Amino acid sequence: MRHPDAPRLLIVPGLHDSGPVHWQTWLQHLYRYSVRVVQRDWHTPDLARWSARIGNTLDRAGPGPWIAVGHSFGCLALAHHLASVNDSPIRAALLVAPAEPDRFGLAEDLPRRRLPVMSTVIASQTDPWITAASARRWADRWGSHWINLGDAGHINSEAGFGPLPLARRWVMAVEQRLARERRPARAGIDEWQFAV
Predict the structure, then answer these.
(1) Are 111 and 85 in contact (CB under 8 A)?
(2) pLDDT, tens only, 95-121
(3) Distances (CA, A) of 128 to 44, 53, 68, 95
């Protein structure tokens, strides 16, 4: 049984969804209480609709907190969602191989400031959907930690990524960090030790 304060995993796929051998699907299967954002139209990139769908999915799925893991256009929708809502139940975001906003004419619609949650952008030197330099610029704007995987294509199943252990390690590290933040302070004990 899930502890009520334990974070849940939200999977935010990109265009055409993430198929059965994609790392997002692999990651989702590792977490019993995970939820996938399902778009009404996987083939039409509509930032406002995709962003709203994240909010609708969270509303239906129940309480968090949530750790969100986006891929490609899903990263753009996730960044837009986080910048558009107040008090999101999402506590951390992993943005893997974000799509190039200029390719969709969306650069002006995306946040150009730090996201309201801790975040990490994972990108590649050989991603056909965005240059590493552009991904780095967006990571800097969003205040995201930056990881460059080198020659890793679009970091999807076509590029050879079924399992992506790095994503799992990141989720586990965030879970541990959130657990530490939930622990009550040991009032009196530590202060007394330093006062002696």
Answers:
(1) no
(2) 999 999 999 999 999 999 999 999 999
(3) 19, 26, 24, 16
Q: Delimit the domains of the chain by residue range.
A: 8-195
If we measure between CA atoms, which residue out of 71, 52, 174 comes closest to residue 129?
71
CB 106 within 8 A of CB 132: no
At 63, the amino acid letter reads: P
Quickly tell me which residue has 């509303």 as its tokens: 59
E-strand stretches of 72-188: 90-96, 118-123, 145-148
- For the chain, the straight-line distance linking the first and the last C-alpha, in angstroms and rounded, comes to 43
Q: Each residue of 45-76: pLDDT tens digit?
A: 999 999 999 999 999 998 889 999 999 999 99
Predicted pLDDT of residue 2: 63
Please list, residue by residue across 103-136, b when 16 or more beta carbons sit within 10 angstroms of its beta carbon and e when fewer do: ebebeebbbeeebbbbbbbbbbeebebbebebbb
Distance of alpha carbon 105 from alpha carbon 121, whole angstroms: 21
**CATH code 3.40.50.1820 for 8-195:** yes
The residues, any chain, with a CB within 8 Å of residue 64's CB and separated by 6 or more, are: 7, 8, 58, 89, 90, 91
